Amino acid sequence: MAGRWIEHWEPEDETFWRGTGERTARRNLWFSVLSEHVGFSVWSLWSVMVLFMGPEYGIDPAGKFFLISTATLVGAIVRVPYTFAVARFGGRNWTVFSAVSLLVPTGAAFVVTEPGTSYTTFLVVAALTGIGGGNFASSMTNINAFFPLRQKGWALGLNAGGGNIGVPVVQLVGLLVIGTAGAAHPRIVLGVYVPLIVVAALCAAFRMDNLRPVTNDTGAARQAVREPHTWILAVLYVGTFGSFIGYSFAFGLVLQAQFGRTPLEAASLTFIGPLLGSLVRPVGGRLADRYGGARITLGNFAAMAAATGVVVHASGTGSWALFLSGFIALFALSGLGNGSTFKMIPAVFHAKGTAQGLRGEEAAAYGRRLSGAAMGLIGAVGALGGLAINLAFRQSFQTSGTGTAAFWSFLAFYAVCFGLTWAVYLRRAAAVPARPQLSAVP
């Protein structure tokens, strides 16, 4: 077990899977979840830190939205190299490294977070936390290789959902600190995460494995970039994951800026939406396994548009209870859609292999090859959706003092995603003769 490299891995082989594969895959899944969980907490750290930044910091709401946008942007960009790092260095090895590297942004934030620090310094430190967003891409690519196609929806949903819970957890930690020590002590939040980062790194080192059969395929990467389905799925993932991470970062600030809530009041509510969105993500994956990812995703976008309509109405009328209900519903639906949309990725590429005449393990291998290459790109573009949401809120509050205009733009985008899902993946086969299999598989 030197270096913990596994030389042989065939999850689609039932005998292998029942004998040793499933047990090993599940062990790697649990510790992958832990590392990704801490990564998400660090990535979303500034959604909490801005709640501690009162008037003495001299940063207005627009400046705070731009601060968290910086973390979102870097988190999206690093997802691409993190995807390829798994094959280059090994899933276990990269998980250890990526966990240890989280000490850098956490330590930097501990040093600089105090009144009098320049806004530029805060921007740089917020950007550093973006590396926590990269953990998602490497973790999902790694776990995708461990599980057979029939269980990918559940496994990827659980992996991502457990990671996503890092967002509400860090917000709960912030709430506890504000509620007990007060808003003048943000460094306590950072002190909590240093030992957690160390634990995640040690668990990965001693309990995870590298898969030797997983290799970087530059040909697959180039093919995935040229494949229209990669970009269509990326747009859909902007609508689901982009919404989840964008709303998670912005929720507390919206409550403060639009409804005048205090840091304690905002912190006491901020975690609820991300928590629900994280918990239902595996449900979205499981439903997609059973009923098809495209069907669940289509219904989900319709529901997200309806919930956004409720938020627009509440924002215009100033109805606090209705606004909160609609916003939390958006979180839950974005989490459900995260699971179903990500399930579509391997299913779509497996169906494409079948459409080209491949069968059995050949079709499965083709699907794994292209979906593995596409996941990092799709995840990166999806995270950029979070950046767009934060910037839309910044512009909306800067021009009108409310988030209403931003929500109108989100509603229009969900309508586009609904139309794309139906047109590409759910129209009757006769209407899309060029891709007959795709209408039924995802």
What do these coordinates show?
- The protein has 442 residues and is mainly alpha-helical.
- It has a single domain (2-439), classed as Up-down Bundle (Growth Hormone, Chain: A), CATH 1.20.1250.20.
- 81% of the residues lie in helices and 1% in strands.
- It has 19 helices and two strands.
- α1 packs antiparallel against α11 (187-207), α10 runs antiparallel to α14 and α15 runs parallel beside α17.
- It is globular, with a radius of gyration of 21 Å.
Give a brief rundown of this model.
By secondary structure, the protein is mainly alpha-helical.
What is the CATH level 1 assignment? Answer: Mainly Alpha
CATH architecture: Up-down Bundle
Biggest beta sheet attributes: 2 strands, parallel
The total beta strand count reads: 2
**Helix-residue proportion:** over 70%
Topology:
Layout: E1 5-6, H1 14-43, H2 45-49, H3 61-77, H4 79-89, H5 91-101, H6 103-112, H7 119-128, H8 131-146, H9 149-164, H10 166-180, H11 187-207, E2 210-211, H12 218-226, H13 228-259, H14 263-270, H15 272-291, H16 293-317, H17 320-355, H18 360-400, H19 404-426
Parallel strand pairs: 1-2
Helix pairs in contact: 1-5, 1-8, 1-9, 1-10, 1-11, 3-7, 3-8, 3-13, 3-18, 4-5, 4-8, 4-18, 5-8, 5-11, 6-7, 6-11, 8-9, 8-18, 9-15, 9-17, 10-14, 12-18, 13-14, 13-17, 13-18, 13-19, 15-16, 15-17, 16-17, 16-19, 17-18, 18-19
